[in-house]
């Protein structure tokens, strides 16, 4: 959605490895924002983004106006009723309908052979993979790894909203994931124990309010009781007023 950072540019680099031409979409999609969310505040700086795209060897920037993407009398959307129901789907009803609809439109307009998305938005990636499979989109979905700041905070356009104190507190997300990774390496598989360890970190962070802490099956996103298969640890936490997400993969 613009206000590009190194995480986005890493996806352009992955696309360049796989394609003769790279198209980068910049569109703050209104249909994936709920009432009261930060649509109007969402950072935008197209000139800055365009300069970064040039440095990243992007061939085309797809930057439509809202009325070009959505007609006033639109009535057709893309819905998914399994992977989208939990996690961010629980606290942001309708969000993923907006995501899938705009991505489907993007695929139909650009007709890419390959589309690259970031692992930081893990639930979104799983949904797009499912949509491409179920609706027979002739596009390969490539998932790029999470790109982090030097101190471990996952890169996000929303990080700019954090005050200096909140920026320090935001490290609790990575700290919680590292705590689970360490316990998992020690042999802990009980999800309640792992979630409790993460909760303790957030409870001791002044500006943190947990939206969800979950450990789910990596493919189905169904909650696990014990980690006996490839699992995804997923977090959504508000630091002050800024909602941040992060995740980590664990292989049983």
Tell me the major beta sheet: 3 strands, antiparallel
The domain count comes to 2
Radius of gyration: 18 Å
| Averaged pLDDT | 96
Low-confidence stretches: none
CATH class value of the largest domain: Alpha Beta
Net shape: globular
Q: Please state the second-level CATH architecture of the largest domain.
A: 3-Layer(aba) Sandwich
- Percent of sequence in beta strands: 15-25%
Individual helix count: 9
Q: What oligomeric state best describes the polypeptide chains here?
A: single chain
Question: Largest beta sheet: what is the strand line-up?
Answer: 5-6-7
The termini sit apart by 34 Å
- Write down the secondary-structure element order: HEHEHHHEHEHHHEEE
By CATH, the topology of the largest domain is: Rossmann fold
- Give the full name of the CATH homologous superfamily of the largest domain: HUPs
Helix content: 25-40%
Question: What do you see in this structure?
Answer:
The chain has 252 residues and is α/β, with parallel strands linked by helices. The protein folds into 2 domains: 6-144, HUPs (Rossmann fold, 3-Layer(aba) Sandwich), CATH 3.40.50.620; 157-250, Pantoate--beta-alanine Ligase, Chain: A,domain 2. Helix content is 37%, strand content 17%. The protein has 9 helices and 7 strands; from the N terminus they run H-E-H-E-H-H-H-E-H-E-H-H-H-E-E-E. The protein has a 3-stranded antiparallel beta sheet with strand order 5-6-7. Helix 5 packs across helix 6 (122-134) and helix 8 (172-185) packs antiparallel against helix 9. The relative contact order is 0.13.
């Amino acid at each position: 959605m613009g206000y590009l950072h190194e995480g986005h540019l890493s996806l352009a680099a992955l696309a360049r490895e796989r394609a003769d031409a790279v198209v980068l979409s910049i569109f703050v999609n209104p249909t994936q924002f709920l009432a009261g969310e930060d649509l109007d505040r969402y950072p935008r700086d197209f000139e800055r983004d365009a300069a970064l795209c040039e440095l990243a060897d992007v061939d085309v920037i797809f930057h439509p106006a809202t009325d070009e993407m959505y007609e006033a009398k639109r009535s057709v959307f893309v819905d998914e009723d399994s992977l989208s129901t939990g996690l961010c789907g629980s606290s942001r009803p309708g969000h993923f309908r907006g995501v899938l609809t705009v991505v489907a439109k993007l695929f139909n307009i650009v007709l890419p052979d390959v589309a690259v998305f970031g692992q930081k938005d893990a639930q979104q990636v799983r949904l797009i993979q499912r949509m491409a499979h179920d609706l027979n989109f002739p596009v390969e979905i490539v998932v790029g790894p999470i790109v982090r700041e030097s101190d471990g905070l996952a890169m996000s356009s929303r990080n700019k909203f954090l005050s200096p104190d909140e920026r320090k507190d935001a490290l609790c997300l990575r700290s919680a994931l590292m705590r689970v990774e360490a316990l998992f390496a020690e042999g802990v598989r009980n999800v309640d124990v792992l979630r409790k360890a993460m909760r303790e970190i957030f409870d001791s962070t002044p500006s943190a309010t947990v939206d969800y802490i979950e450990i789910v099956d990596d493919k189905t996103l169904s909650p696990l009781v014990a980690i006996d298969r490839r699992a995804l640890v997923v977090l959504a936490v508000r630091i002050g007023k800024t909602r941040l997400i992060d995740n980590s993969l664990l292989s049983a």
